Amino acid sequence: MPKLPPPPDMALPLQPPLEPMLAKGAKKLPKGDAWIYEPKWDGFRVIVFRDGDALYLQSRGKKPLLRYFPELEEPLLEALPERCIVDGELVIARDGELNFDALQMRLHPADSRIAMLAETSPAAFVAFDVIALGDTDLCTTPFVQRREILEQILEGCVPPIHITAATTDRAVAADWFERFEGAGLDGVIAKGMAAGYEPGKRTMVKVKHDRTVDCVVAGFRWHKHGPGELVGSLILALFNDDGRMQQIGVAASFSKAKRAELKDVLAPWMEDALDDHPWAEWMQEEAHGERRPGQQSRWSAGKSLKWEPLRLGLVAEVGYNHFDRGRLRHPAHFKRWRPDKPHTDCTFGQVEVAPPMEIQEIFDA
Predict the structure, then answer these.
(1) Which residue in 40, 53, 140, 226 is a FRET match for 312, CA 20 to 30 A apart?
(2) What is the DSSP letter of 345?
(3) Which is more confident, 330 or 18?
(4) In the prediction, which pLDDT does 306 show?
(5) Rounded distance, CA 309 to CA 245, Å?
(6) The whole model's pTM is what?
(7) Which helix H or strand E contains 42, and what residues bound it?
(8) Residue 40 annotated as catalytic
C-alpha cells in the first residue's frame, strides 16, 4: 500500500485521529425506556471530519480512507454542514444486500483500480452519530439530543448519504434483529439516551447473531510466538454439494494454556496427514478456484499463512455470528470436540441461511 498522508490540522473542536466509541457484546437487547436501538451495519467504521472544503475520512484503525472512496467526497461535501465531525459506516450494497467482500476490494494500491472500482462498485455512507458541530464539542451532549441534531443537519440527504434507522421500541428492534440479517446486517446496537460520546470506550451495547456449526478440522497453523509448541489457529472446512472440502475460516481465540494443550490433541492427527488429504496438492501451491490454506494474498500484509495438514476425522463445534458467501466473516469460537460425528457429515447444509431482503427496506425504516 502507498504511504498515506498524516491527518490534516482542522479548525474543529476535536482533531483527527480520534478513537471511535465502541460497543460491548450482550446476549439480549437491554430493556427499559432509556435506550435507542439501531441496526448494526457491516462495513468499514469511519469518522468524517469536515472543515470547509477540507474533508478527512478516518478508519477505526485511525487510517485515512478518502483516497480509496473518492466518489464520496462530493456527496459528503454537499450533505454535511461546513464544519462538523460525524460518525458512521461505509457500506457497499449489491443486489439489494450488503457486500463486505466488495468493500474490502476497494482498498487497492493502484490509482487506476481505485478509479475503476469507484465507478463500478460505489460505496455509501450511513451516519449514526454527530460528535461536533461548528465550534461545539458534542461529546458530553446526551445521545438523544445528538440524534436530533444528526437528523436536522442531514435532513433531505440523498443516496449515497443516509441516516441509520433508529427506534425506541424494543419490539421493533427485535424484529430488525431477525429480519435485517437477510440483507447482510450484523445485529442491533443499543445506545443509552443519556450517554455521551466516549472515544475508545465500550459504552454502547451490541447484540449479534450467535450460531454453531460442526466443522472438519483440516489443519492448523502454529502460533507466531511458539512455532512447534503453541497452536495459533484451527483451519475449518465443510463439504459442499459436490463432495469437495472447502475452507470456511479459522478458530483462533485460545489461551496460552489451551494452545499448548492443542499441540498434544492434534499430534496423533498429524501422522500420515497428507495420504488422503483433499488439499495435499495445495502444499505445492497448485492453483484452484476455492479458498485454500497456505495461499498468500494481498490482504495478509506479508503474514505467514504456512499451515500443517491434519488427517481427516477430527470434528469441532464452533460458534460464529456471520456466515457470508461460503465463509465465516470473523474467526469462530471453539466450543467442543465432536468425536461422535463423522467428518463427512460436516456439510454446508448445516449452515442457517437468513431469508434475503432488500437493503432499501432498512434505509426506509
Answers:
(1) 226
(2) G
(3) 18
(4) 84
(5) 13
(6) 0.75
(7) none
(8) yes
Give whole-number Cα distances, 335 to 314, 323, 338, 343, 351, in Å. 14, 17, 10, 16, 16
C-beta of residue 81 within 8 angstroms of C-beta of residue 49: no
Pairing state between β 124-133 and 161-163: parallel
Q: What is the mean pLDDT of residues 311-328?
A: 88
Q: In 102-140, which positions are buried (b, 16+ CB within 10 angstroms) versus exposed (e)?
A: bbeebbbeeeeebeebbeeebbbbbbbbbbbbeeeebbe
Structure-block grid coordinates of residue 195: 450517554
50-93 residue pLDDT tens: 999 999 999 998 999 999 999 999 999 999 999 999 999 999 99
The active-site residue, picked from 3, 40, 62, 224, is: 40
Q: Are 254 and 266 in contact (CB under 8 A)?
A: no
Residue at grid coordinates 462498485: 121
Average pLDDT, the chain: 89
Q: What is the pLDDT of residue 288?
A: 45
- 194-219 core/surface letters (b: 16 or more CB in 10 A; e: else): ebebeeeeebbbbbbbeeebbbbbbb
- Residue recorded with cell 456471520: 322
pLDDT for 185: 84
**Tens-place pLDDT, residues 90-107:** 999 988 788 888 998 999
Q: Is the pLDDT of residue 18 over 60?
A: yes
Domains of the chain plus CATH, in order, are: 22-208 (3.30.470.30), 211-350 (2.40.50.140)
CA distance 196 to 129: 11
Beta-strand runs (E) in 134-194? 136-137, 161-163, 187-192
Residue 86: all three cell numbers together: 460525524
Handedness of CA 76, 80, 83, 85 (dihedral sign): negative
DSSP character string of 211-254 = EEEEEEEEEEEE-TTSTTTSEEEEEEEEE-TTS-EEEEEEE---
* Type and span of the H or E element at 179: helix 170-179
Q: Which residue shows C-alpha cell 456449526?
A: 213
Query: In terms of DSSP H, where are the helices of 271-313?
Result: none
